């Protein structure tokens, strides 16, 4: 023990030194969207009554969940002028920001009339129970059979 005391005296550190960790106001695990990203997301949501944030494009989804969301939405005759998709892989700020904006950790994310609906699992569930059709009808985005144009 004398040897230890001698070593600590030479380094000017007390033998029973106590380190106090004080709480901080900084949260290391909380993320917030920057104002610019929030505005960009809000502008995307205002651009169309139906907005799907996905990985890839409707023609080439780059994940199974995004593909499932597109397949479900393709079961309806949604007016293309009222349906917007955004490939989150092209903008990392939107990719991370949309998760914070909705407080939902995964992509894809569907919004109808500016309201977050959910991901592909919820989309499948509300498709099965008929709620998705009601939401799309209420948003006024479904084409009437007589108005569908074949190109």
**SSE-based structural type:** alpha+beta
CATH fold call: Glutaredoxin
Helix count, DSSP H or I runs of 4 or more residues: 6
Main-sheet strand order equals 2-1-3-4
Strand portion: 5-15%
Number of domains: 1
Cα end-to-end separation: 90 Å
The CATH level-2 architecture is identified as 3-Layer(aba) Sandwich
Shape: globular
Please state the oligomeric state of the protein chains shown.
single chain
How is this fold's topology laid out?
Blueprint: H1 2-11, H2 35-47, E1 50-54, H3 64-73, E2 83-87, H4 92-102, E3 109-112, E4 115-118, H5 120-128, H6 131-139
Parallel strand pairs: 1-2
Antiparallel strand pairs: 1-3, 3-4
Helix pairs in contact: 2-4, 3-5
Protein name: Monothiol glutaredoxin-5, mitochondrial
Keywords: 2Fe-2S, Iron, Iron-sulfur, Metal-binding, Redox-active center
Domain Glutaredoxin: 50-117
Write structural notes for this entry.
- One of its GO terms (molecular function) is metal ion binding.
- This is Monothiol glutaredoxin-5, mitochondrial.
- InterPro entries: Glutaredoxin, GRX_PICOT-like, Monothiol_GRX-rel, Thioredoxin-like_sf.
- This protein is an alpha+beta fold.
- The protein has a single domain (33-141), classed as Glutaredoxin, CATH 3.40.30.10.
- It has helices at 2-11, 35-47, 64-73, 92-102, 120-128, 131-139, and strands spanning 50-54, 83-87, 109-112, 115-118.
- Strand 1, helix 3 (64-73) and strand 2 (83-87) form a beta-alpha-beta unit.
- 41% of the residues lie in helices and 12% in strands.
- Strands 2-1-3-4 form a four-stranded mixed β-sheet.
- The radius of gyration is 26 Å and the shape is globular.
- It contains six helices and four strands.
């Amino acid at each position: 023990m004398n040897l230890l005391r001698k070593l600590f005296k030479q380094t000017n550190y007390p033998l029973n030194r106590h380190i106090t960790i004080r709480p901080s106001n900084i949260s290391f695990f909380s993320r917030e969207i920057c104002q610019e990203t929030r505005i960009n997301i809000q502008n995307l949501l205002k651009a169309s009554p139906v907005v799907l944030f996905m990985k890839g494009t409707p023609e080439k989804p780059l994940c199974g969940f995004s593909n499932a969301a597109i397949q479900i939405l393709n079961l309806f005759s949604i007016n293309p002028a009222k349906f917007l998709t955004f490939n989150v892989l092209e903008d990392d700020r939107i990719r991370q920001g949309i998760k914070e904006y909705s407080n939902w950790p995964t992509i894809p994310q569907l919004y109808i009339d500016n309201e977050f609906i959910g991901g592909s699992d919820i989309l499948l569930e509300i498709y099965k129970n008929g709620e998705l059709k009601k939401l799309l009808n209420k948003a006024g985005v479904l084409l009437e059979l007589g108005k569908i144009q074949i190109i």
